[in-house]
Amino acid sequence: MALPDPGASRAVLIGVDKYRHLPSLRPVGRGRDRLAELLRDPTVWGLEQRHVAVLGAQASRDDILTAVKRAARETTDTFLLYFAGHGLRGRGGSARQLHLALTNADDEHPQIGSIAYDDIRDILTAGHRARRKIVLLDCCYSGLAGGMGQRAAPREELHQAAIEGSCLLTSASSTQLAFAHDDRPYPEFTGALIAVLERGIRSAGPELTLDQTWRAARAVCLRRGAPEPQQFGQNAAGRLPWVRNRAYGAPAEADPRARRPKAAVARRRKAERTLRVLGMPLVMLALATPVIPENPPVQGTDDRASGGRSAEPRVRPSSAVVPGTPRTPGASLTPSGSTTPEQRGPDPTARTNPEEKGVRVWLARSYVGEDAFLSAVAYAPDGRLVAGGSEDGSIYLWNAATAERVRILSGHSDRITSLAFDPGSSTLASASDDKTVRLWDLSSGESRHTLSHPGQVYSVAFSPDGGTLVSGGQGDAVRLWSVSDGSARETFHDQKEDVLAVAFSPDGEMVLSGSYDRSAAEYDVGGRWTWRDEKLSSDAITAVAYSPKDYVRAAGGYDKVIRTWTGPESGTKVFKGHTESITALAFSPDGEVLASAGLDAIRLWDARKATLLALVQGPGSSMDIAFSPDGKYLAGAAGKAVQLWSITR
């Protein structure tokens, strides 16, 4: 199918980065200008310079509405409208109205100095000739533009509110704030969208549809811990191609990320990460995120048989270019030193389920890193060390009992995505976005082996005897490695897209993996059989775990639901409660408690009954969790520290 005709298409890009009464948004201007460059680039779309109107803080309400009207009238193929800046909600009876804040906007009176999105919608529905309209909104509460009165509004209501023949992509739901880091070059959603346009999607064809674009951008945003984007559209607008795919036909090793200027990377890592919230000037900065639709309905709420599970021969499927587990934008934490749980007492952020007696959770202490946010955590099996991996590639080792920092391991050049101690607590494995896994000798702090991968690595785990390491990442492969010499042992290619999570069974004979293709797969390490469930989840599986007893498997991910099962033919228990994507799962050493980390909170569950035991809401969402070897503590990577929660049952 042909791309939109550049000569018959128009784009209006609005990025308001300076405000008089609200915090200014420096990344907005950069994102707006870079997006304009890409839309003009013939390797992406090829719009003529004069057909892309770029408006900034100096533009008035009339300037913007006139530009939109003129461009809409001139368009006979595809019209694109982009806005980034502060988003404000109406007050009183107008609470469901979205206001796009301009330079003179006033948060107390949203109607002053702003444009009501309804006014723009009126122009776009006035019978112009454009066969398709694309609207990208990167601001807080942007889901209001899709007619959402609540987070899970009926799809019919959303369609009624959408512009006929359009595809609307918003950075957040109607009730959510959007996030941006001041040191990052672009707003979260805009940056994710730019990344897709710049790099393309390896598993896609020569052109990209809007559906493919938001799926990839969504993955990036969720991995970063940003609010889940939304997508609304009619007349199959999202399934039509709109730009060229730069990754199509490119060599697998041609990764544009490898060409990032070193100076820019250094500045990004050293800059202080100041989190700002859009539409909330008294909280901090504001900005928006990427675009995406509501999650598909969860498939089943009761135990079910093994429909969709299959043991199939290994056939190499196509690979995809997307994510891993999301990272958190949580606030930095203040260390509490070596205070004992008894000295601190119960923490008000931990709530016990009133139906379950004898479960108490409170914050025991915090292990503090430096400037970068922490994205991975591991607890040594001997109980002596806690490890935390950061977004800048550093790995911190702390004394578990005193919270004293023991050592910093340096060698990775990008975000740490997963950490694992070997059973003897002498080796630490670290996975990274820099396409490597490193095996660290903890006695010397030296990197013994570097295991190279074709793409970003998202998850690692040791076998129970410590002799084998399993890894999963970009592409469709689950890889087994020899720990002694770092050599590759076996590679499984049964899943169709990125492998986001891996785990070893308690006896070391099986490996469980979760994929972006929504499937869970289990492999016999000896290579004799493979089992795969393609219908286990309604969305990407980002976390998997084995219970230490009874061979209970667990999986969770973007659909916010956890499922456990004991074998290919068993029924499935369903754990519901998370309101945001699940990022990590961990069973207690006795297998009685299942802990889940999400972008909303940590939850502790009765593993047998699938009932909630406790809800832990700390200063920031936890990206990764790990139990202590005695099961009395749960460590969670959140913000710039690892929080240690004491659990009494």
| SS element count, helices | 8
Number of strands: 43
Q: Profile the largest sheet.
A: 6 strands, mixed
- Strand order within the widest sheet? 2-1-3-7-8-11
- The percentage of residues in β strands lies in 25-35%
Domain Peptidase C14 caspase: 10-201
WD repeats: 367-408, 409-450, 450-491, 492-525, 575-615
Biased composition (Polar residues): 331-342
Region (Disordered): 292-357
Topology:
Elements: E1 10-15, H1 26-40, E2 52-55, H2 61-74, E3 78-84, E4 87-89, E5 98-101, E6 114-116, H3 117-124, E7 132-138, H4 155-161, E8 166-170, E9 179-181, H5 188-199, E10 207-209, H6 210-223, E11 230-233, E12 241-244, H7 262-270, E13 275-277, E14 309-310, H8 341-344, E15 350-352, E16 360-368, E17 374-379, E18 385-390, E19 395-399, E20 405-409, E21 416-421, E22 427-432, E23 436-441, E24 446-452, E25 457-462, E26 468-473, E27 478-482, E28 488-492, E29 499-504, E30 510-515, E31 520-524, E32 530-533, E33 541-546, E34 553-557, E35 561-565, E36 573-576, E37 582-587, E38 593-598, E39 602-606, E40 611-616, E41 624-627, E42 633-638, E43 641-648
Provide a short characterization of the protein structure:
Keywords: Repeat, WD repeat. The chain is mainly beta. The chain contains eight helices and 43 strands.
